[in-house]
Amino acid sequence: MSTLASVLTACVKRWHWLPASPMTGVSKPSESNGGTRFLSEAELDRLLIACRESASPDLLRAVMLSITTLLRPARPRPPATATWRPSLVS
């Protein structure tokens, strides 16, 4: 909501596209100071099923892009198991 208010304020003050912001007088919920929450595996499964059933052809792609690049926590990876061996070719 604060992002929308910022965009509308820029429309009024910077670009003069609107005479006044429609967000004036709208009470905004307080921002949470809680930590970032990620979807559980069950929630993720339900989200993907809903995206597949959606009438929007691009929704699944957009959600897949988001969860694979931006919105998922970095998971610890095991150390690489490959080892270097000198070549037998001289």
What amount of the residues lies in strands?
Answer: under 5%
Instruction: Determine the number of helices (DSSP H or I, runs of at least 4 residues).
Output: 3
Provide the gyration radius in Å.
23 Å
H-E string: HHH
Number of strands: 0
Pairing-aware structural class of the strands and helices?
Answer: mainly alpha
Summarize model confidence as the mean pLDDT: 79
How do the strands and helices of this protein lay out in sequence?
Layout: H1 2-13, H2 41-53, H3 59-69
In summary, what is this structure?
The protein has helices at residues 2-13, 41-53, 59-69. With 90 residues, the protein is mainly alpha-helical.
Verbal overview:
- There is one protein chain.
- By secondary structure, the protein is mostly helical.
- The chain has three helices and no strands.
Q: Keyphrases for this structure?
A:
single chain, 0% strand, 40% helix, 90 residues, mainly alpha
